[in-house]
Amino acid sequence: MTIRQMKNQSIKFKGIEVSFADNGRGKAVVFLHGFLGDKTVWNYYAKELSSSTTRVITIDLLGHGKTECLSYVHTMEEMAEAVYAVLKHLKLKKYYLIGHSMGGYVSLALAENYPDEIRGLCMFHSSAKADRDEKKKDRTRAIKVVKRNAKIFIDEAIPNLFNTTEKPNKQGITKAKKIALYTSKQGIVAALEGMRIRLDREIVLKFAPYPVLYIIGKEDNILPYKDLINQAKLSDNGRYELLDKVGHMGFFEAKKECLEILKGFIKGEV
Ligand code: MLT
Description:
By secondary structure, the chain is of the alpha/beta class. The protein is built from eleven helices and eight strands. The protein is globular, with a radius of gyration of 17 Å. Strands 1-2-4-3-5-6-7-8 form an eight-stranded mixed sheet, with helices on both faces. The site of D-malate has 7 residues, from loops.
């Protein structure tokens, strides 16, 4: 069965539908998308990695994709709880977590509570730090814009996620915008609120008993690469891959390279 043919599945969590896809068998790898994304951003990876020995689970986070909103503030902890409900529904005992940006914040919130269940954590253009004051102010401004007109916000935010030092990645931007436009106004605002108040989780990284891999874009406009390299070095089990000419969307911008990195990580090579 191809990913395209695959039907979405869902569970009920606190009265709302949480949507996910589950493909393959064996070692479980859980992919969590970032802000304004959804589980389909991982379709290529789900298709390439799922097999008779690897099970790929992709989940729509609260207020994104086909997962409904739970409230007006989606904390990283609540998002992690919803993810955990899916993992328990699937009876997973151990799994890799691959989290893109906000998905990485959620992964850390989950890993904090269940370190023994994690086989490995990939922070895919993501950070363990809380927002600094300036960033918090940006979030508040963004919330105002979204409340007035979400499309204006999306039209501005999405191109900036890609490498802006080269000619625009039109295909990637179009694809990412299409997914983002599917996100409800409430979902966008609730995620911005949740990211704004998220906790610093560098301590979770520092004492991570499992391998940690940072995938970092040298041209990331959202999370400066030098800071992420320092974070990767915090943990004795931490490593990083720095991608040239890549912004914040490596899974679209350097699809094959990222696939090979993830394959190695899951095999225990990196
Ligand atoms: C994301 O891609 O998830 C967001 O850009 C993360 C953030 O705004 O901190």
